[in-house]
Amino acid sequence: MTTVLICDDRRGVREGLTRVMSAVPGVSRIDCVAHGDELLARFSRAPVDVVLVGTQRAVPTGVEATRRLVSANPQANVIVFGAPDDAGSIAAAIAGGARGYLRWDASRPELVAALAHTLASTSVPAPRQPSDPGVQLTDRELQVLRGMAMGKSNGQIGRELYLSEDTVKTHARRLFRKLGVRDRAQAVAHGFRRGLVS
């Protein structure tokens, strides 16, 4: 049976995640905390199998909570929850030690898979896997991916690379297809896991 600890400063999010997680087979206990200090104290007092940390665009609390928890407890299995287009927060949380991420609207099968992979000490996979795991990105696609990892818009990436925004979008679509992901956040997280960005 799996024990879960949810950390988010929004009460509605904590309650919503608790309802969703309570329906996941194998989850025996779910506790909630609102802030990073509570998370550290609660985990050190009674470690759990999986920690779910909510992230918000331009709000560093979730990323900082992840970083502090993993720094103090390297064995902690953290999954971050966030908006699918908030690549910056998700990438920062993964860089801070999270094993993977899920979208706020993740389906129950995705939640089950995430818990299973995390407990097996592997990174949480993107919902879709690339058809060819050995596929290589072009230099331009890597430049676009790295720009995304820095939280830059398509327009900003285009200006830096002297490309039109439409051309950047084309490169983005190609790298999404190669990596087997649906959006920027998944692409960035996948890039961190494969060492394509740092």
TrEMBL record:
Gene3D superfamilies: 3.40.50.2300, Winged helix-like DNA-binding domain superfamily/Winged helix DNA-binding domain (1.10.10.10). SMART domains: HTH_LUXR, REC. Keywords: DNA-binding, Transcription, Transcription regulation. It comes from Actinophytocola xinjiangensis. This is DNA-binding response regulator. GO terms for biological process: phosphorelay signal transduction system; regulation of DNA-templated transcription. Residues 130-195 form the HTH luxR-type domain. SUPFAM superfamilies: C-terminal effector domain of the bipartite response regulators, CheY-like. It holds the Pfam family GerE. Residues 3-119 form the Response regulatory domain. GO terms for molecular function: DNA binding.
